[in-house]
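Interim report to the steering committee. The following record documents the input for Oxidoreductase (806 residues).
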Amino acid sequence: MGSGPAGLSAAAHAAARGVSHILLEKSDHLSDTIFRYQRGKHIMATPSQLVVRADVSFEPGKRETILDTWSSEAAKHKVNVRYHAEVKSITGAKGDFSIALSDGSVVRAETIVLAIGTQGNPNLMSCEGGGLSHVQYQLDDPAEYVDEHICVVGGGDAGIENALGLIADRAQGNTVTLVNRGADFARAKEANAKALLAAQEAGHITLLTTAETTLIEPGWITVDTPEGATRFRCDRVIARLGSAPPRKFVESIGLEFTSAAREAFPKLSPTFESTVPGIYVIGALAGYPLIKHCINQGYDVVEYIGGAVDLKPADEPILEARLKGLPGNRSVAQWLEFLRQEIEILRGLSPLQMREFLLDSDVRAYQSGDVIFKRNSVGSSVFGIASGSVEVEVGGGRKRMTVTIPRGSIVGEVGLISGRPRGATVRAAEPSILLEIPRMAALRLMASVKEARDTVNRITTERQLLQMFGSGLTPDDLTDVLETAEIRQVKTGEAIIREGEDGYDIFVVRSGSMVVEKQIGGKPVFLSYLPAGSYVGEMALIDGGRRSATVQAAIRSEVVRLDGDRFRALLRRKPELEEKLRADMADRRKVNGYIEEQKGKFGDVVDMYSAVADFLVEQGIGEATDVLLIDETLCIGCDNCEKACADVHDGLSRLDREAGRTYAHLHVPTSCRHCEHPYCMTDCPPNAIHRGPDGEVFIDETCIGCGNCQRNCPYDVIRMDSRPPKKPDLISWLLFGVGPGPGEPDKAWRAKHKPKGAEPPKVAIKCDMCIGKAGGPACVRACPTGAAIRVSPEEFLTVKRMNRGE
């Protein structure tokens, strides 16, 4: 059933072996999924190291060429194809199945191979307006669309290829925007992602990442982005949101699935047999969407049905090489099952999916004391602990302690979620076997397997709560609370708590940041700023009553809602935790009382403080970890800050003092904010952007000048420039007038002194907070009046500064 790559390969091999067979296809042509690809689409052949063994061939090429080749090979092998054969039901048992078709006829079969794929069951738009007539889930021929504003929703291969197809002929005049829910293109092939970014760089396409469609109207679309909601013209929406197995039909014939999740796949044996004896599943419905895999499975399943017992999958040699040298003398199949059973995030994968997954990952054995990774080292992969355990060294000095992570769990998840450097040193506590999963493979796993996504979220939430609340809590203490914990995406400006409402749930800021406001004298007054790692909501939980303030997202954020009843039960069991919450609550009440008192005495001052805080949040301070501010009542315009920045950074300033926005006397110049989740890290091919031990985001010498970071930064604080010739030192300039003097050399001096030959390559230039230089940021040290300061938002946006008259 199904004449795509898997089904066609199975039928061709049955024909080659002289086995009685019939290939049922509901359309009037072979391989309907590929037939419906956009015209002229180039089809890739990945993974490149995997060989094809089958009676149909496959080489990368255009859709039309591949379909023609398969049609010729089907005719050559005398494949028995029946078109317009839509299956309505299957009854019977192994050796005597009856397949009822929509035309009323019945096909009898001893065995059945399901190769029907998932494309007939696409995921649909869920936002308001998602059912309008100009929303479509397929693109047949990009050339049909001319001079349209088109929004492609989805950053997988299909969405990217559709978007690129719509701009392939620039004469068509289409304006194309691609909306991707994530920051990365985890589902896409690397070549597709690079082609998309190149099109963005050329100005041919607009990318909105970490974005979500919220409203579709005739002629318009509204998308929520990290900077807030944006509404733009849209004549057509092409939604490529992936697909799910046709579960209703598959379950109707008796097959069981691995779980109740929509994305789950049927339970299968290593030989592709389902829970119904005699019915086999291959291809995308088995969780193997890549064409090479599908074709090989078609060959293999016919061999298995024919009685083969020693047949090894085509990827066996590759996996054997990856697993060579590990202790235990296990076969590839045994290793795959061992890893799947022992590592919790992999338990939702089938044995077949595990083969594909392991092609992207590495398994390593460690001895007791071996370092797995060091604190502040660069790395974004996550490690699954298959055997043994690891020790995590946290804290420093006298507060240094070791936490043991047991078998089955993961470690390294901070780099996976935020892209930050390793936050701790991790060593093997005993002889251990770990599976290292690259970040993109882990993101694909979380995107496609609900169980993996839920497990990662649960583990990261648990560890955040243990770190934040302390008070001697253990993972077992949090079991009840985490059972009902809910992770929520919060839009910019959206409130998670409103002043005056009932409710006593606790909210933890997982990423992003929140601001707290209170109505005083009929006006909203800014109370505090809550960065990631903060919690809120304890007042109503402990003392009852209505919410005393409004808490809303400063930027697009993620919070964890903890059920109030279960948290109260935890407080009863852990009085030391209640004591901590009461102390925090007392501090916040002091702030509230102080604000109300000052509002009565100095209303204008409080209003000004709130207005300044609102302005800073609007300027993106909500996601900063360090920001440069200039007091314009003190600034004399000497430009010492810019000159000092250039002098300590190879003659190129990372600061534009005059650019940026000003409110009252407070100026936010163009300088890196060192964001909590840096946009510039989203797609750096050489992985040249890192975060230092003090939170500074810096670019190292491996930068290739691709410009992705500059395009991804929403604050325009990254410039692309070639390093100027080395200047003579300041003493030579002061005494002899040699060189251009302090600051950036002008264009004339650079042109006169540039090296002969090719123009020096451009690289990305941004503030690195003068990392490794004594005395801290040069811009602050060089300011003669103290107008320039660098602060974290939580330090600056606090009532304590107003309390001190600052």
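The chain has five domains: 5-120+244-314, 135-239, 326-458, 479-601, 619-723+760-803. The committee is asked to note this result when reviewing the revised timeline.
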